[in-house]
Specification:
It is built from 15 helices and 13 strands. The chain has 457 residues and is of the alpha/beta class. It folds into three domains: 106 residues, Gyrase A, domain 2 (2-Layer Sandwich); 107 residues, Up-down Bundle (Four Helix Bundle (Hemerythrin (Met), subunit A)); 167 residues, P-loop containing nucleotide triphosphate hydrolases (Rossmann fold, 3-Layer(aba) Sandwich), CATH 3.40.50. Strand 9 and strand 10 form a beta hairpin. About 6% of the residues have low confidence.
Length: 457
């Protein structure tokens, strides 16, 4: 492999900037761009200890003073010789240093190439590599903790345990067939069935985490629904902290869904402000109403906003029932608390309004703290898994194919087929697990995964 270099800290001015180098022979190359204060060449500096010195441009002129450190392979991030330069975060300084490295023989690193090399050199499997990207993109503390645990190998260990059980079954079968004269323990269907059941149980448990993984990674899909002019857009703006949606006194202002990501009670909500749900003859508004119903049906959380300052309406009760039928948690919210509170009676059209109704004002902010506390209770951080969780569609698809193959093997055993008939299902499950961890993943799958990384990582 050749030597690669890239700025690891972005292109905007920062206090500290880092340039990362990796590849066989990178230490002598770095000798050309770094002059240590202790007089020793960079390639002779102590491993994993910062050395102070001067960074030099392609002409040998000093462009900055800072620190440099070398990480000999294989005990480095990429598994090969690596180096880092820590200097002031001026984009000009970083670009000059990068240009000097290119002049010395390095090339520009591609997006995700450092982590890809770590994977190719056996430092990480694909689930850990994806955890690196998840950790960088984490928007909540729970998401960061989960990604860190996955990077530490939590998911990999679960998958390795299943893989080892399946390899035991496969290897024992081949040993009995290939060496019939050897004193090898015969295959017992009951033992195979027990092992397959354990593997199926582990994969089913992992597959049950898919929704939680999506919520941790992408946030809680939250539909804000209600009749026109109930205060939905005002609530979105209040939670976002700025005027994200247009707010007027004219009912039906929102014709399409408006989306925004916010933190509410420490939980990342993907808010979807929808058109007011009502019967209308306006074709454009009707399209918005249909999208509102679709957003409600696909939501992880529904906020049903009702005008708390106005007399009750039958449409509010209808929308509450739609929220109940969606199956997702929903919160009834009485808005416009700053305009006063209209009297409510049992037969006000809401039916049995849940006791968790929240009264708030998007104008004054009163009651928003109650909403945050309620959301935090619905999605507690303590519920965050320890990294044994599937966080994307690729992982989910591979795990499901492996589990389904194991189930077919169990069905074959239960129907009285001989153990060798199960071998095809076992090997199919192994192939699916290999794709998940990267052991047998195709090159195009690997490339697609690392394309989402930033340059420098």
């Amino acid at each position: 492999m050749d030597v690669i270099a890239a700025i690891a800290t972005g292109t905007r001015p920062t206090a500290i900037g880092i340039v990362r180098v990796s590849g066989p022979g990178c230490f002598p190359l770095c000798d050309q761009v770094f002059r240590a204060a202790n007089g020793r060449p960079f390639s002779e500096q102590d491993a994993r200890r910062m050395a102070f010195g001067e960074m030099l441009d392609a002409a040998g002129h000093v462009i900055d003073q800072g620190l440099a450190v070398r990480f000999p392979g294989p005990n480095s991030y990429t598994g090969e010789d690596c180096a880092e330069f820590h200097c002031h975060g001026s984009p000009v300084v970083l670009q000059e240093l990068l240009a000097a490295l290119f002049a010395a023989g390095a090339r520009q690193a591609e997006a995700g190439e450092y982590t890809k090399r770590a994977f190719l050199n056996g430092r990480l499997d694909l689930t850990q590599a994806e955890a690196v990207a998840d950790l960088i993109d984490a928007e909540t503390a729970a998401a960061a903790r989960n990604a860190a645990a996955q990077l530490d190998g939590s998911l990999r260990r679960d998958l390795e345990a299943v893989t080892e059980r399946l390899l035991d079954i496969s290897s024992q079968f081949y040993a009995v067939v290939d060496y019939p004269d050897e004193d090898i323990q015969d295959i017992h269907p009951a033992q195979i069935a027990a092992a397959l059941q354990d593997c199926e149980s582990t994969l089913s448990r992992l597959l049950a985490t898919c929704q939680r993984g999506r919520v941790l990674k992408s946030g809680v899909r939250t539909a804000i629904v209600g009749r026109p002019n109930a205060g939905k857009s005002s609530l979105l703006n209040a939670l976002a902290g700025y005027e994200r949606a247009i707010v007027t006194d004219i009912p039906g202002t929102t014709r399409d869904t408006v989306e925004e990501s916010v933190l509410c009670g420490g939980v990342r909500l993907r808010l979807i402000d929808t058109a007011g749900i009502r019967e209308t003859g306006d074709a454009v508004e009707q399209l918005g109403v249909e999208r509102a119903r679709q957003a409600l049906a696909n939501a992880d959380l529904v906020l049903v906003v009702m005008d708390g300052s106005a007399p009750p309406a039958q449409e509010d009760g209808d929308i509450l029932r739609l929220a109940q039928e969606s199956g997702a948690p929903f919160l009834p919210i009485f808005s416009k608390l700053d305009l006063g509170t209209a009297p409510r009676i049992a037969a006000d059209g809401y039916g049995d309004c849940p006791a968790n109704a929240i009264r708030l004002s998007s104008v004054t902010g009163e009651g928003l703290d109650v909403l945050e506390e309620t959301v935090a209770a619905l999605f507690p951080e303590g519920d965050a898994p320890d990294g044994s969780i599937l966080t994307n569609q690729r992982q989910q698809d591979s795990a499901r194919r492996a589990r389904d193959a194991i189930r077919r093997g169990l069905e074959a055993l239960e129907s009285g087929l001989t153990p060798d008939a199960v071998l095809t299902d076992v090997e199919e499950a192994l192939d699916a697990l290999g794709e998940l961890t990267g052991r047998t993943a195709r090159e195009e799958i690997v490339s697609r995964i690392f394309e989402r990384f930033c340059v420098g990582k």
